[in-house]
Design goal:
Layout: E1 2-3, E2 6-7, E3 9-14, E4 20-26, H1 31-45, E5 51-54, H2 58-67, E6 72-75, H3 81-85, H4 88-95, H5 103-120, H6 129-151
Parallel strand pairs: 5-6
Antiparallel strand pairs: 1-2, 3-4
């Protein structure tokens, strides 16, 4: 993405169920940037993953060998679709010409949006209609509690 004429890359970590674990906006796409994301993930999650799936960028494997040497790494074009699909909200905002004014604003949006999207992410194919409505109402009530505590 481009902010004020400068290119930035969005690094996202998504688990096997599609929940966004973390998002980081960086001006570079190299080994140091990948290491920063991995260290941040390890600090937040507390444990190393069993398998890491990425696109074919070589920076991931270079950073993984230093930060998480025991983790299996799968690098394939189609395997990382979960992470690519989590970019859709950002792309939608860019399409509507509601661009970000600064990298800091974009980072704040991406971090917050991931957590909110996780709240409302319900896997419909595994639920009956009744269970789905119940979980959806629960998520909306949590959102109202959060919104009410912010406004107060």
């Amino acid at each position: 993405m481009t902010i004020k004429g400068k290119k930035y890359w969005l690094w996202r970590a998504v688990d096997a169920n599609g929940y966004v674990l973390d998002a980081l906006l960086q001006s570079r796409r190299n080994k140091a940037a990948a290491m920063r994301l991995m260290r941040k993930l390890l600090k937040d999650q507390g444990i190393a993953p069993r398998v890491m799936v990425t696109d074919k960028l070589r920076s991931y494997s270079a950073a993984k060998s230093e930060v998480m040497p025991g983790v299996e790494h799968r690098s394939h074009k189609g395997l990382n679709n979960r992470a690519e699909n989590s970019h859709l909200a950002l792309r939608r905002r860019e399409r509507r010409m509601m661009r970000f004014k600064s990298a800091r604003q974009c980072q704040r949006f991406v971090s917050t949006h991931g957590q909110i999207a996780n709240l409302f992410l319900l896997h419909r194919k595994h639920l009956t209609a009744t269970d789905y409505r119940q979980l959806r109402n629960h998520a909306i009530s949590i959102w109202r509690d959060i919104g009410g505590s912010i406004a107060a």
